[in-house]
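ENTRY TYPE: protein
WANTED: fold as tokens:
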Amino acid sequence: MFCAISGEAPEVPVVSVKSGNLFEKRLIEKYIADHGKDPVSGEELTVEDLVEVKAHPETVRPRPPKLSSVPSLLSALQNEWDSVMLEAFTLKQQYQQVRQELSHALYQNDAATRVIARLKKERDAAREALSNVQEHLGAAAPAAAAPEATPSESMEVDSSGLPEEVVSKFDETNKVLSEGRRKRKPPAEHTSVDQIKTFTQTSTIPSMHTTRSPGITCVDVDHSGQYILTGGNDKHVQIYNKAEEKVFANLTGHTKKVTAVKFRGQEVEHDVAISASADKHVRVWVPGGNKGYQLGHNITAHGADATDIAVHPSKDYFVSAGMDSKWSLYDFETGKSIVDTVDPETQAGYTAIEFHPDGMILGTGTADSTVRIWDVKAQRVAASFGEHAGKINAMAFSENGYILATASEDNLVKLWDLRKLSNTKTFTLDEGYKINSLSFDNYAQYLAVGGTDVRILKAKDGSQLAAFSDNTAEVTGVKWAPLAQSLLAAGLDRTVRYYTTPN
């Protein structure tokens, strides 16, 4: 038996339970500490995945050869050859990583160059149009041409707007959804207040993601409720099959923690998934491949952390927000940006983003405690709320489209009436309570709060209906089932929990 790294007979042999390769214990433990994966197969590997082999008789290191004979010289040369091969193996891995980083950098540079060229062209066209208007009105032309604008000035020019086909799709979706939502009341089978008060933890899904960087940072559920999409501090995206009680797909590629995940929302067996990460990238995952899912698009979305994503109600488009104070609209099929909108009023960056249920407006929260409501078609701010005193951590629109709930570091939950553009209710939670997630049920009767623990509030007056403290770390995501039959919560303790009425 020979070590897969050194090529020599190991003194303390161990075997990887994942790849079946044999290693010298001290060498593989050092490699795992540096890289966290199998040096041969590239799979994630921990020290707990190594099994020590009991050899009888135990391997004894041979006496060092003396370089006084041809066999001893050959042995020394063989050892040098092994060292060179191991170094070459490591260099190849580093070379591939550098190639990928260079490719991303070149792509970003090309994209920036094209954006600047387009904005300069639009600026020149706007100046020419202004000159024509002045001549038409008989106004005197400027005595001297304006100085050449710097790149930062050109970025302030308003964008040309959304393509006609996108505007048409938005209008069509808005018409269909807004008509179907008028005067909609909860059905008789909707979970009552008395039933909510009896909710208790009924089941859990433990040990999600890895222990090396533990914690579920975000969660979503598909239309059937059978597939649970999670992102973690371990940089992985996982899709869990609840019916089969196992991870259906473990998706790797992000190089920093995953900050947001969403299903596309289509009523298909395996829905498209998207994820955002602190590595500035947004990835689109499509069904297929050996892992059940494969990478559809890798989008270099932002110049800083990508913090949140939201899917348009049409299911054809989605947006991402980042700490570079920019939100971008993308097409699901091509993965290309349709429009990039930079907020000129803040440099603090976005921390939350959410589409209105009708798809015509967009809510954003910033790190400097401001909530902005955007007209998506015009890409302008329609309203701005600044009554919070800390970073906006979460936001949620009610399904009827009238109410927006926001939460921040000041342990407050505020409800905004979008018809009056004013704060109508403020719910104050415990001192020091941290809020990470908000979720209305489909009929806006209840508001779930996830953070230090899990709480269910009555949306009308903020009275607390239920509270659960089964979590051993912060809760980072909460999701209602249809008709408020159950509530899902996921958090940094690597566990997904279900709360519902006991059987």
Remarks:
- Helices lie at 25-35, 70-137, 151-154, 164-181, 193-197.
